[in-house]
């Protein structure tokens, strides 16, 4: 057995290293929902200008008809398509031109954007996307 090298410790460490790289590689590029003000909400009425069903997040561009003064356009962020599908959403649920009412947690920096908490669609259907820590939001009129 002279001259042979034992490679077993290296072989055992290799799968663990691959798993660690896979976990950290997917977690690094994602942001948290801390950019949204979880203590207040806006209720906005408007027309969907654009509905983007894509990863890592869905987006709605809303032309605001009723909301805070000076707010003509608002960008609503949703969770991932995968999470939306699990909650029963379909890409066909929303379309450009739909007249909607939304409830959103606004961006902390005051820009015209926020996290979609609820959307009231034409025909009376109401949908709420899954959002993390929904209990931390305090809905205000």
Tell me about this structure.
This protein is α+β, with helices and mostly antiparallel strands and 141 residues long. It has a single domain, classed as OB fold (Dihydrolipoamide Acetyltransferase, E2P). The protein is 18% helix and 30% strand. The chain has helices at 8-27, 81-86, and strands at 42-52, 59-66, 73-77, 99-106, 113-120, 126-127. Strands 1-2-3-5-4 form a 5-stranded mixed β-barrel. Strand 4 and strand 5 form a beta hairpin. The longest helix has 20 residues, at 8-27. The termini are far apart.
Question: How would you sum up this structure in a few lines?
Answer:
This protein has 141 residues and is of the alpha+beta class. The protein has helices spanning 8-27, 81-86; strands at 42-52, 59-66, 73-77, 99-106, 113-120, 126-127.
Q: What kind of oligomer do you see?
A: single chain
Helical percent range?
Answer: 10-25%
Number of domains: 1
Extract low-pLDDT stretches. 14-30, 133-141
Order of helices and strands: HEEEHEEE
Separation of the first and last Cα atoms:
79 Å
CATH topology: OB fold (Dihydrolipoamide Acetyltransferase, E2P)
Shape: globular
Radius of gyration: 22 Å
Mean pLDDT: 80
What's the helix count?
2
- Shape-level CATH architecture: Beta Barrel
CATH superfamily: Nucleic acid-binding proteins
Side by side, the strands of the main sheet go 1-2-3-5-4
- Tell me the strand percentage band: 25-35%
The total of beta strands comes to: 6
Largest sheet: 5 strands, mixed, barrel
Structural class: alpha+beta
CATH class: Mainly Beta
């Amino acid at each position: 057995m002279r001259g042979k090298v034992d490679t077993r410790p290296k072989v055992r460490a290799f799968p663990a290293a691959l798993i660690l790289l896979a976990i950290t590689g997917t977690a690094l590029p994602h942001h948290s929902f801390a950019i949204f003000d979880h203590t207040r909400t806006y209720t906005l009425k408007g027309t969907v200008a654009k509905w983007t069903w894509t990863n890592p997040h869905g987006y709605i561009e809303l032309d605001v008809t009723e909301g805070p003064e000076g707010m003509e356009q608002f960008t609503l962020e949703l969770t991932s398509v995968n999470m939306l599908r699990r909650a029963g959403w379909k890409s066909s649920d929303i379309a450009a031109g739909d007249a909607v009412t939304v409830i959103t947690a606004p961006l902390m920096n005051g820009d015209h954007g926020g996290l979609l908490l609820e959307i009231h669609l034409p025909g009376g259907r109401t949908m709420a996307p899954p959002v993390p820590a929904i209990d931390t939001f305090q809905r205000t009129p």
